[in-house]
Write a structure and sequence with these properties.
There is one protein chain. The protein has 2 domains: about 1-85, Alpha-Beta Barrel (TIM Barrel); about 100-125 and about 135-210, Alpha-Beta Barrel (TIM Barrel). The chain has 12 helices and 8 strands. It has about 250 residues and is α/β, with parallel strands linked by helices. The longest helix is centred in the C-terminal third of the chain and has 18 residues, at about 175-190. The model has no long low-confidence stretch (mean pLDDT about 95). It has an 8-stranded parallel β-barrel with strand order 1-2-3-4-5-6-7-8, surrounded by 5 helices. The protein is about 45% helix and about 15% strand. The protein starts with a strand and ends with a helix.
């Protein structure tokens, strides 16, 4: 599973151009689910071009209520109405810059599942937390609180492990580091739920993923895909990540 997180980039014209460039580049690709998460205002344009293709779309966030007096917010039903299958929740930029905590993120995960949208729950530690030997403790707490009282069916939850120190810095965690934490996440999910349900959860790595390093991460046993930031902004670059097997990277 390869997910493009565009963050606050691209206008509608650029979005339409990207979609038209990407589709022919993905012809013949199988066995990989592709999801693009653009800014909210670009979702309808992207949906119009990608509808009927193998590429799905997702939101970068949502609010936990379905409607009401919440100025500036987007409800899960609004995302579903424009064709979203997925939504990114708990991204470190939402946690660090906007101040979202695990309680807020937990409410959003519940809202997404109730609306039939698959949440991509992001977890990850800062550099200081890793240096203080607290990486697993931090990720465990984010999972425990983010999934509190959450019930989901097989395949209805995605986890993205994004070490905060590797996002947008050009410094990625080693594949060994990523595998170690993602293996820990899967084992912990099996404790929270059941082993079979934990196995159904796709766990992605995110953090300066590029065409040049994607194969290294995907060779690891427990890594099921990637959440891609900057390298997803160009159709050719993102297509090379999706097609990493065919490209021989």
């Amino acid at each position: 599973m390869m997910v493009a997180n565009w963050k606050m980039n691209k206008n509608i014209e650029e979005t339409e151009l990207f979609a038209r460039q990407l589709l022919p580049l993905l012809e013949g690709v199988s066995g990989v689910e592709v999801v693009i998460c653009p800014p909210f205002v670009n979702l309808p344009a992207l949906h119009n071009i990608l509808a009927g293709s193998q590429v799905k779309i997702g939101g970068q966030n949502l609010f936990w209520e379905v409607k009401g007096a919440y100025t500036g917010e987007i409800s899960p039903l609004m995302l579903r109405d424009v064709g979203c299958n997925y939504v990114i929740l708990g991204h470190s930029e939402r946690r660090q810059i906007i101040g979202e905590n695990d309680t807020i993120i937990n409410r959003k995960v519940k809202a997404a599942l109730n609306a039939g949208i698959i949440p991509i729950l992001c977890v990850g530690e800062t550099l200081q937390e890793r240096e203080n030997q607290k990486a697993r403790e931090v990720v465990k707490e984010q999972l425990t609180q983010g999934l509190k009282d959450i019930v989901f069916a097989p395949g209805d939850l995605v986890i993205a492990y994004e070490p905060v120190w590797a996002i947008g810095t050009g410094v990625n965690a080693s594949s060994d580091d990523a595998q170690d934490m993602i293996s820990f996440i899967r084992i912990y999910l099996a404790r929270l739920y059941q082993p079979e349900l934990a196995e159904s959860v796709r766990i992605l790595y995110g953090g300066s993923v590029k065409p040049e390093n994607i194969a290294e991460f995907m060779a690891e046993k427990d890594i099921d895909g990637a959440l891609v930031g900057g390298a997803s902004l160009q159709a050719d670059s993102f297509a090379r990540i999706v097609r990493y097997k065919q490209n021989g990277n």
